[in-house]
Design goal:
Length: 384
């Protein structure tokens, strides 16, 4: 049952509760406000730019239009939470004995943080207006960035992420779908101009054109979504990035207006700011789960994560990492063993590597790991 409340009073309620919950900005749009998004999404999937993210193709229809996901929706409230770092995250890439974890993942899992707060706000809206609501944070088939642009919170930059005049490229997004009729805000306009700093900053050339991302070349995709070995052509370019990549975000000139986020609001996890590669290489499954408890990093699992750390180790030129990498040649995971082969091929000289191969190949049966040995031996000019 709908309760009588003026649009002004409802907006004041939404803004007050959003601020109280730690959101930096909030605006409203209509479910039909992103008419160009379906075709762009279809092209992205049609070109195969989604890589192994099959769920994007499977949810194409529901993702393309909010009303396809929930026909009863009348208004969409888009909320943004600032997660801006206090320093340029690219500075960590010079510390080759450390792992660079994407800024967003150094805090408690934003899905949990934001969804709980959205539910609180949604509950208060229903209490005042009646009707029904649904809340979404990233994992549902909702195109948050086009909706945020339509609501006026920012615009999708050439790196395809949302850019704000107030917060740069550092915003988490969440949405509240409601059956309440709320006057929409004016959309934001594209303010990128001739700038292409974000495109130039990408280590792997993941942008075939402005506003287009080939996820298969993106370090965030390669270290998070990709479940197999990291393709050889990208390994050196990954550097010490062990979970995600912030380069295109950090390069955006609009970040000069951004303020560092409150760590208290985001539940920052300090141990994840500059973790030592040696410590991370030693993680078994239980230790991995404990160390990343509450972090989104935990979702990719220990084996995929240690694979990433081994790539960083191989790029480190740090002789102190040879023993930890060598210990992983006997790991239960073929994914880990294969990455250990590559790391050691970069850390030890050819004769020592050949000796390692002679010992390991007597027991190795996995075809992918055997292929890693063959490729590395050829690259090193070593013989078994």
């Amino acid at each position: 049952m709908r309760t009588s409340i003026s649009d002004t009073a409802l907006r004041q309620l939404i803004e007050r509760e959003a601020s109280r919950a730690g959101f930096a900005a909030v605006a409203v749009t209509r479910p039909d406000a992103i008419p160009l998004a379906p075709a762009r999404l279809s092209q992205f999937v049609g070109d195969g730019f989604h890589g192994s993210m099959a769920w994007m193709a499977e949810t194409l229809e529901r993702r393309a239009a909010p009303s396809a996901l929930w026909p009863e929706v009348r208004s969409i409230i888009v909320l943004a939470m600032n997660y801006g770092p206090d320093t340029d995250p690219r500075e960590l890439q010079t510390l080759t004995d450390r792992g660079a974890i994407s800024v967003y993942a150094r805090n408690r899992d934003y899905h949990d943080v934001i969804k709980g707060r959205l539910k609180e706000i949604a509950g208060k809206i229903v209490a005042r207006t009646g009707g029904d609501v649904k809340v979404f944070v990233d994992t549902a088939p909702v195109m948050e960035k086009p909706l945020a642009e339509a609501a006026g919170l920012g615009w999708q930059g050439k790196h395809t992420n949302l850019v704000s005049r107030e917060f740069g490229s550092w915003l988490f997004l969440g949405t509240i779908f409601t059956t309440a009729e709320i006057a929409p805000d004016a959309p934001e306009v594209d303010r990128c101009g001739s700038c292409h700093a974000c495109l130039d900053a990408c280590p792997t050339n993941a942008f075939p054109a402005p506003y287009r991302l080939d996820a298969r070349r993106c370090i965030s995709y390669l270290t998070i979504e990709n479940k197999g070995p990291i393709p050889l052509e990208f390994r050196q370019k990954i550097g010490n990035r062990i979970y995600g990549c912030d380069d295109c975000l950090a390069a955006c000139p609009w970040n000069k207006f951004a303020q560092a986020a409150s760590e208290q609001k985001l539940a920052a996890l300090d141990d994840l700011r500059e973790p030592r590669l040696a410590d991370l290489l030693a993680l078994d499954d239980a230790a991995f789960r404990a160390f990343f408890s509450g972090s989104p990093v935990k979702r990719i699992g220990r084996d995929r994560f240690v694979r990433n750390v081994l790539i960083a180790a191989g790029n480190s030129a740090d002789a102190a990492l040879v023993d930890p990498c060598q210990a992983l040649l006997g790991d239960a995971s073929a994914l880990v063993r294969g990455a250990a082969v590559w790391a050691l091929s970069r850390l030890v000289e050819a004769r020592a590597f050949s000796a390692l191969a002679h010992q390991a190949l007597t027991a190795e049966t996995d075809p992918d790991v055997l292929a890693e040995w063959r490729t590395a031996l050829e690259a090193n000019g070593a013989q078994t």
